[in-house]
């Protein structure tokens, strides 16, 4: 039985804690308010993960330190640097593998499917923050000061998140019209939250995964329209009513809404094909993506009863 420390109790942190607990591991979840899933094997601790001394004390003896934190979008440039520094310092001091949940922002706009070899060419603030975090971690790894890895997913599928599909599907199931400034017919990779957890744990515990980033195995890319149609069919809901809003509307919304303002930087992800290749993780780590309809069935059930259910096959 190993100790795993998880920073953050959002959808991914919660799924990771549940997965590890179900496997018989000891889990310590660290958040500012001491939140996290209720499980006999999960210890919930209220602490500031940005305090390297406190986090080091909580991580001593741990096999891995899982970075599942996610500051508010508009606070990334101010909140991420000190938090990332504390996490890396803790990994250096304790020897725990630092396994970070990343994303695709660092690549910026691309033509064609993204792989782990796609250059980190983002010119946006959020993408540059993530690139700096990974560069610092990788430098520590190459210098022999720490062992690090990162798993990157596309937009999340999973109850409790604020991703585009999770803003769309509740309205679809309620028979309401969805109006968004996106191309509903552009192929897009969607990443199921329990698959992020499985990939994170696999990367943290397999030394072949250390020193590089991995894309979370995800189902084949489908347009948001198809995602909505399939979810509606599973729920017995009416055919989705989807209306594309002109791009300037997003800019106008950003004048009053910080979240909408931050979405301007990543708007390119939703007006063209946005496809992620995850072959490397499938082949090396042995993680297979959850079939899309299986994931949607769990999400539909969760939206109906308001509960964030762990995926039945999360222990794959």
Automatic annotation (TrEMBL):
<protein>
    <submittedName>
        <fullName>Nucleoside-diphosphate-sugar epimerase</fullName>
    </submittedName>
</protein>
<dbReference type="InterPro" id="IPR036291">
    <property type="entry name" value="NAD(P)-bd_dom_sf"/>
</dbReference>
<feature type="domain" description="NAD-dependent epimerase/dehydratase">
    <location>
        <begin position="6"/>
        <end position="207"/>
    </location>
</feature>
<dbReference type="InterPro" id="IPR001509">
    <property type="entry name" value="Epimerase_deHydtase"/>
</dbReference>
<dbReference type="Pfam" id="PF01370">
    <property type="entry name" value="Epimerase"/>
</dbReference>
């Amino acid at each position: 039985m190993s100790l795993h420390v998880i920073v953050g109790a959002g959808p991914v942190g919660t799924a990771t804690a549940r997965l590890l607990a179900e496997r018989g591991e000891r889990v310590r979840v660290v958040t500012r308010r001491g939140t996290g899933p209720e499980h006999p094997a999960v210890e919930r601790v209220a602490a500031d993960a940005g305090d390297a001394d406190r986090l080091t004390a909580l991580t001593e003896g741990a096999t891995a330190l899982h970075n599942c934190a996610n500051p508010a979008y508009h606070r990334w440039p101010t909140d991420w640097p000190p938090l990332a520094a504390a996490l890396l310092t803790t990994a250096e001091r304790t020897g725990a593998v630092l396994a970070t949940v990343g994303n695709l922002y660092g690549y910026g706009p691309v033509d064609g499917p993204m792989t782990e070899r796609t250059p980190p060419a983002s010119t946006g603030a959020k993408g540059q923050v993530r690139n700096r975090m990974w560069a610092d971690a990788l430098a520590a790894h190459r210098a022999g000061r720490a062992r690090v890895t990162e798993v990157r997913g596309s937009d999340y599928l999973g109850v409790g998140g604020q991703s585009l599909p999770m803003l769309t599907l509740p309205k679809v199931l309620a028979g309401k019209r969805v109006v968004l400034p996106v191309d509903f017919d552009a192929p897009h990779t969607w990443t199921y939250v329990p698959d992020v957890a499985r990939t994170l744990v696999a990367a943290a515990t397999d030394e072949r995964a250390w020193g590089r980033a991995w894309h979370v195995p995800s189902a084949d890319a489908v347009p948001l329209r198809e995602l909505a149609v399939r979810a509606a069919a599973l729920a017995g809901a009416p055919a989705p009513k989807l209306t594309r809003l002109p791009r300037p509307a997003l800019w106008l919304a950003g004048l009053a809404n910080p979240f909408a303002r931050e979405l301007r930087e990543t708007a390119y992800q939703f007006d063209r094909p946005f496809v992620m290749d995850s072959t490397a993780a499938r082949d090396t780590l042995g993680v297979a993506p959850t079939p899309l309809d299986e994931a949607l069935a769990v999400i539909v059930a969760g939206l109906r009863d308001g509960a964030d259910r762990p995926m039945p096959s999360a222990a794959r």
